[in-house]
């Protein structure tokens, strides 16, 4: 066996393809879309590498064409969840012994497969199953997932190279063991890349995983599982277990070998899980790692010296791309009175050009929201604003679920900075604006900081450096990812590690070393060359 020390190369971010008219990528994406639409998959659970068909079936549908069924999928019962835990624990025995550079090879190969032959499959599946435009799918299911795979390998190699101090008398080593037990990955619908990464990151560090994908992203997530299998991931390292969250959670949280949870989703669900884990704490062999990235109420805060055109672009892209269904989406904005007429004029003009519809029509900027539940919830907020005397809907507000779950980009102006749509996460294409008096900058910054429980992303806009410094300081814990003169969405792996504090999560920064460190339980080994053979110290003589 080779005793050489290996190091992974520092990768570069995957280049985002443009999908311009007549481009090769556009032609091949269109072909893949029609191929997938003609099939109807039957998606099994994958436990220990085996396909399991439980007969308890649900459908994957196209959100912008709700009568089109892309696939059926089988749901886990208690028996399958227990089998998945067993499979993960069994697979761990071999997986921990595999040299890390071989683990790395599997995930690097997966990145290459995704950058090449699998790219259009993942993008088309994400467009159809989650209603993303070609560009939104490309930055998610292709580029971000490829980056997670490559950068995590690089960060792992950096971590493994970090060692401790030895002396002439003793040699000290630190080992980065995986956690004891198995890891539970519970993933959201809105990013295919997050679906993959929440299992991949712990697995890369030597853990084995039970992956519960969100019901509305099972279609694209299943292709990730197949891609990982093609890349050579051994059976049982990641077990794909669709099913009801509370049923699966109950079995997992009652198992003594539960080693940690890697969650992304709503604050409410994460809080409920944390409470159950707390109640069960005496059952576990080790304190479980609890890592969760959750909701947001992300802001754009403009100073009177902001550039109006750039501000408006950030508002439109930040609030309406992917129908506002990004945890980072701009959903509240604070605009100074002196700038408001120019901002309003430009914003209304631009919003009027936004096309909403089938994402296969590349002229559309927005598709549909994910499902009926989301549609009803978002519509509820719009109706609330419509009926309130404290707010005015200045753009959009129409909702239509006859063919798919379509909601117009909607802009509300609130007279009260604590108005419901200024403070609660909506997770849809709804932007609420509060216009503040120019001389109330400090007071309004304080409101921005304190009026929601979240702390995920935010943007500050100004051409005045002193103002930027003031805003950055006053909003110190308002965002884990703060942007200056840019939209609050679109973090890139390796460049802007992502995550927030307060009710937005444990801020363990997906796509960074900080996250990978949560999936190891270090062991320090001291070897002494000439240990003492007398318990008495010199001062005692
Ligand atoms: N901070 C981030 O990085 C980030 C990224 C993406 C999404 N999000 C957040 O995710 C939310 C939207 O995603 P969503 O609708 O998929 O979230 P969600 O909380 O409804 O679901 C997330 C996952 O939890 C599962 N789940 C639900 N109830 C469960 C239970 N009782 N036990 C076990 N599992 C359960 C779901 O099936 C899904 O797999 C938003 O709040 C958004 O802000 C945050
Ligand atoms: N990382 C993504 C958001 C993920 C949550 O939905 C962004 O930066 O826009």
From TrEMBL:
EC class: oxidoreductase
GO biological process, one term: L-proline catabolic process to L-glutamate
InterPro entries associated with the record: Ald_DH/histidinol_DH, Ald_DH_C, Ald_DH_CS_CYS, Ald_DH_CS_GLU, Ald_DH_N, Aldehyde_DH_dom, P5CDH/ALDH4A1, Proline_metab_enzyme
Reactions accelerated catalytically: L-glutamate 5-semialdehyde + NAD(+) + H2O = L-glutamate + NADH + 2 H(+)
Pathway: Amino-acid degradation; L-proline degradation into L-glutamate; L-glutamate from L-proline: step 2/2
The EC number(s) this enzyme carries: 1.2.1.88
UniProt key word Zinc-finger: no
Domain of life: Bacteria
GO cellular component annotations of the record: cytoplasmic side of plasma membrane
All copies of domain Aldehyde dehydrogenase, residue ranges: 59-512
Keyword rRNA-binding: no
Keywords noted in UniProt: NAD, Oxidoreductase, Proline metabolism
Residues annotated as the enzyme's active site: 293
GO molecular function: L-glutamate gamma-semialdehyde dehydrogenase activity; proline dehydrogenase activity
Pfam family, one: Aldedh
Protein family per UniProt: Belongs to the aldehyde dehydrogenase family.
Protein name: L-glutamate gamma-semialdehyde dehydrogenase
Organism the protein comes from: Geosporobacter ferrireducens
Source organism phylogeny: Bacteria, Bacillati, Bacillota, Clostridia, Peptostreptococcales
């Amino acid at each position: 066996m080779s005793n050489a020390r290996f190091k992974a190369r520092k990768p570069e971010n995957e280049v985002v393809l443009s999908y311009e008219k007549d481009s090769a990528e556009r032609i091949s994406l269109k072909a893949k879309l029609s191929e997938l639409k003609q099939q109807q998959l039957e998606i099994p659970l994958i436990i220990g590498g085996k396909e399991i068909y439980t007969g308890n079936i649900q459908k994957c549908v196209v959100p912008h064409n709700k009568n089109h069924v892309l696939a059926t999928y089988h749901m886990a019962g208690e028996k399958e969840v227990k089998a998945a835990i067993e499979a993960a624990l069994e697979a761990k025995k071999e997986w921990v012994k595999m040299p890390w550079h071989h683990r790395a090879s599997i995930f690097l190969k997966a990145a290459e497969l995704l950058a090449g032959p699998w790219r259009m499959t993942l993008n088309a599946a994400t467009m159809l199953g989650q209603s993303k435009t070609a560009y939104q799918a490309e930055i998610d299911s292709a580029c971000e997932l490829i980056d997670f795979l490559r950068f995590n390998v690089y960060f792992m190699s950096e971590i493994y190279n970090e060692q401790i101090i030895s002396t002439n008398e003793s040699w000290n080593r630190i080992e980065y063991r995986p956690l004891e037990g198995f890891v539970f990955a519970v993933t959201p619908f809105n990013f295919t890349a997050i679906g993959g990464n929440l299992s991949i990151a712990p697995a890369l560090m030597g853990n084995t995983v039970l992956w519960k994908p969100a019901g509305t992203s099972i279609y694209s997530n299943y292709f990730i599982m197949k891609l990982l299998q093609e890349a050579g991931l051994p059976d049982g390292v990641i077990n794909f277990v669709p099913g009801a969250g509370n049923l699966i959670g109950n079995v997992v949280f009652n198992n003594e070998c539960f080693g940690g949870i890697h969650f992304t989703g709503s604050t409410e669900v994460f809080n409920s899980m944390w409470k159950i884990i707390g109640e069960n704490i005496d059952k576990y062999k080790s304190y479980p790692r609890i890592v969760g990235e959750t909701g947001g109420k992300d802001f754009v805060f403009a100073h009177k010296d902001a550039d109006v055109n750039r501000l408006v672009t950030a508002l439109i892209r930040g609030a309406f791309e992917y129908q506002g269904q990004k945890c980072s989406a701009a959903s509240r904005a604070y605009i100074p009175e002196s700038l408001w007429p120019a901002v309003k004029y430009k914003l209304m003009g631009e919003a009027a050009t936004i096309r909403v519809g089938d994402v296969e029509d590349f002229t559309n900027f927005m598709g549909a929201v994910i499902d009926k539940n989301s549609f009803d919830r978002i519509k509820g907020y719009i109706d609330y604003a419509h009926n309130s005397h404290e707010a005015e809907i200045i753009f959009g507000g129409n909702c239509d679920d006859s063919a798919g779950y379509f909601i117009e980009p909607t802009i509300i102006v609130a007279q009260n900075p604590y108005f419901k749509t200024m403070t609660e996460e909506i997770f849809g294409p709804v932007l609420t604006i509060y216009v503040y008096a120019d001389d109330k900058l400090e007071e309004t910054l304080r409101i921005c900081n304190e009026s929601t429980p979240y702390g995920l992303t935010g943007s500050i806009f100004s051409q005045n450096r002193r103002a930027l410094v003031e805003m950055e300081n006053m909003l110190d814990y308002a965002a884990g990812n703060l942007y200056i003169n840019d939209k609050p969405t679109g973090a890139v792996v390796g460049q802007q590690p992502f995550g927030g504090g307060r009710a937005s999560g444990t801020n363990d920064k997906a796509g960074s070393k900080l996250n990978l460190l949560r999936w190891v339980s270090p062991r320090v080994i001291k070897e002494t060359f000439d240990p003492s053979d007398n318990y008495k110290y010199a001062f005692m003589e």
